[in-house]
Amino acid sequence: MEKESLKSDTKFNLLDRDSFNVAIISVFSALTVLVGYLLYAIPNFELFSLMLFFCGFSFGKKNGLFISVISVTIFCFLNPMGPSHLLLFATQISLYSILSLLGFFSFKYLKNKEYFRPTEDLFVLRVLILFGAVGFSWTFIYDIIATIGGYLPFVELSFEVWIPIFIAGIPFSVIHIVSNTLLYIFVLPAIIQISSKLFKISEF
């Protein structure tokens, strides 16, 4: 009886299996790149960053980082507009890896909260505020740093040059920030609920 009780208390976690981790990294790296390309024609509207946050949140720190490195590398060097130069690539891979880590730490923060019910209902105000804040703040910082990383090798360091660059980018950044914030609030919880029901992952 005691052995049976111990077995029933043991939580089965798919992330303990190496084969499952390899499959998750492969499938979601490809899916993230595919989603990035599908929406590429819509300026500043993308699901690429949301997917990387989701991967860190749902599949853990290590898997999230692997997916970020693989998918960002493919997306940046097979970009229809041309590959990223090395400084921009380093900037992008760093920022997207940080995003996956933010997903992981968001899960760690939420997992013991009584209002966090990933298989039932994630459209709870405190969860939505957290997701929206991450989407807003990360996108705001990304647009600034990626702009600097993109232009730095080609222009001189002076206010006369950089101020027009940032002013010209404001409309695009506003669209990017607003769309990402709304996606993190209204789409991300639904994706997490679906994955939680499918994989029944309890902790990382």
Task: Provide a descriptive summary of the structure in words.
The structure is a single chain. The chain has one domain: Arp2/3 complex 21 kDa subunit ARPC3 (Orthogonal Bundle). The chain contains eight helices and no strands. The protein has helices at 2-9, 18-38, 48-59, 61-77, 86-110, 125-151, 159-186, 188-199. Helix 2 (18-38) runs parallel beside helix 4 (61-77) and helix 5 packs antiparallel against helix 6. It is globular, with a radius of gyration of 19 Å. The two termini are 29 Å apart.
Shape: globular
Q: Could you describe the largest sheet, including whether it forms a barrel? A: none
Radius of gyration, whole Å: 19 Å
CATH topology: Arp2/3 complex 21 kDa subunit ARPC3
Distance between the termini: 29 Å
Number of helices: 8
According to CATH, what is the class? Mainly Alpha
Structural class based on helices, strands and sheet pairing: mainly alpha
Q: Architecture in CATH?
A: Orthogonal Bundle
Unreliable residue stretches: 1-11
Oligomer kind: single chain
Query: What's the helical proportion of residues?
Result: over 70%
| String of helices and strands | HHHHHHHH
Give the percentage of residues in beta strands. under 5%
- In round numbers, the mean pLDDT is 88
How many separate structural domains?
A: 1
Q: Quick one: how many beta strands?
A: 0
